[in-house]
């Protein structure tokens, strides 16, 4: 991953410990998005074929890896994350799923990997909106493109739109927290933390622009849940 400033620091041991629960509340359809991502990659690469998958920002639940491994026994994964607590959680989930031998953990950034186009596919899920500014977002996408084979698919998913630009969505987000037992004060604290701690792309068009500038094809949206979007694209050949 590119230099992220305080992005990795946000995911300390305390934040990492609550991630698996909190992420599923914040994103309605968390598991469905990851499962669809795995299905799209399998359909794109062809079922039953060996592949090397680069999982950027793998920390936390390692849901990208666990979901994909359910479909494809010949896939091997490189799990990259700049947060040690988050990567430890991911590798614990990988171990519970019996996938340790198929998963290589890398503590650090995508840019620190050898700059060779050796990966058959990549995922970047729940990462881009944590990177402050366009330059940081562009840098991680550039780093991914350099390590993918021509025409290799990339799954990108994360929040888009300035939160204040969608007040109804923001209110619905709060209602989802209330649905899961949060008090009014807790909801306000959560929404305040979200407003201060993320910098999502302003639109689907901006996501597309970042990807095309990095050398990817125009993305196709396959999943949407309030602010969250999921896209598949391919490195240009």
UniProtKB/TrEMBL annotation:
InterPro entries: Methyltransf_12 (IPR013217), SAM-dependent_MTases_sf (IPR029063)
Superkingdom of this protein's organism: Bacteria
One Gene Ontology molecular-function label: methyltransferase activity
Annotated keywords: Methyltransferase, Transferase
CDD domains: AdoMet_MTases
Keyword Protease assigned: no
Family annotation (Pfam families): Methyltransf_12
Domain Methyltransferase type residue range list: 56-152
One record GO biological process: methylation
Keyword Transferase: yes
Protein name: SAM-dependent methyltransferase
Record organism: Labrys okinawensis
């Amino acid at each position: 991953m590119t230099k992220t400033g305080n992005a990795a620091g946000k995911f300390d041991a305390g934040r990492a410990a609550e991630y698996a629960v909190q992420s599923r509340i914040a994103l309605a359809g968390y598991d469905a998005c990851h499962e669809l991502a795995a299905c799209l990659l399998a359909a794109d690469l062809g079922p039953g074929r060996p592949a090397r998958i680069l999982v950027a920002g793998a920390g936390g639940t390692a849901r990208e890896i666990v979901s994909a491994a359910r479909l494809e026994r010949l896939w091997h994964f490189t799990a990259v994350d700049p947060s040690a607590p988050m990567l430890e959680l991911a590798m614990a989930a990988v171990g519970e799923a019996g996938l340790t031998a198929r998963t290589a953990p890398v503590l650090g950034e995508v840019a620190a990997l050898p700059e060779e186009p050796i990966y058959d596919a990549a995922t970047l899920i729940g990462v881009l909106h944590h990177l402050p500014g366009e330059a940081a977002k562009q840098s991680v996408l550039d780093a991914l493109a350099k390590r993918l084979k021509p025409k290799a698919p990339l799954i990108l998913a994360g929040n888009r739109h300035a939160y204040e630009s969608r007040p109804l969505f923001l209110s619905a987000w709060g209602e989802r927290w209330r649905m899961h037992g949060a008090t009014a004060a807790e909801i306000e604290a959560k929404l305040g933390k979200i407003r201060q701690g993320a910098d999502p792309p302003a639109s689907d068009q901006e996501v597309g622009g970042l990807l095309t500038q990095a050398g990817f094809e125009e993305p196709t949206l396959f999943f949407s849940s309030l602010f969250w979007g999921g896209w598949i694209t391919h490195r240009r050949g």
